[in-house]
Amino acid sequence: MSSQNPDISMEKRTRDWIGDYAPYLILGVFVVWTLVPILWMIISSFKLRTGMFEMPPTIIFEPTMQYYEELFFGSNPLTPYLINSVMVSIASAVVAVGLGTLGGYGLSRLQIRGKKHLAFWIISTRMAPIAVVIVPLYFIYQYAGLLNTHLGLVIAYTTFNLPFAIWLMRSFFDEIPVAIEDAARIDGATRWQAFYKVAVPLVLPGMGATAIISIVYAWNDFMFALIFTNSTTQTIPVAASQLVTQTGTHWGQLMAVGVVILAPMVIFGLIVKNYLVSGLTMGAMKQ
User: Fold this and answer.
1) Is the domain 68-286 a CATH 1.10.3720.10 member?
2) How far is CA 267 from CA 24, 97, 262, 271, 273, in A?
3) pTM value?
4) Which of 37, 53, 187, 206 is the most buried (most CB within 10 A)?
């Protein structure tokens, strides 16, 4: 009986090791690349300015709440910006999901000539960069009296969220067999009753996923909030940009406001993560 070549055996073990551990190594590098800047920001927000740029950085230090106190109780408190962000994010998400559900259902169920081309045209409007529409929207808003209003921001965010919402909701409705609604209509339900009593409850995870994505987009937007608002309607990303001035950068407050911007979305994401995953995987087969 011939013995196995040790070189071949070693090569096979090496390939097996790479195949088993390489994905975890790549994932670990990605996690470190993503989380280290965030952790650095969080830690720095509790340091005095002199300690932020120490090399090597100090991990054990006496924390300070100075920058958070300046943000919320200083001469220009952050609270109004937070309220504006919450208002326009939730309102735009509600409008986008509501209209997106109706539009997605129509594209999924109605027999429309050129339906596939229409669906592609709808999602293609989302591909346009924001800079392309800023100038025409600004003049429209000026004539319509929507500048410096919460309603103007809600309309702007809905304009960009709605195509994506329609596209997602269409795929979610495609996952639901038409026979279920046909059975409801045989029992006497109208098309509208079959829609909101049968189809809508079945796509609630998809509606939740769409709402989450819409909220995150509106929460993080900077361009619309910068151009279309004033000091009374600006959102929190605009407030963060004001900490970078010609005389210098307020690093402590900037780190603190970064944590304030990030924290609600992280907490919100952890709460609804299962709902988001189930909603997105619901339409995965049709994407």
Assistant:
1) yes
2) 26, 21, 9, 6, 10
3) 0.79
4) 206
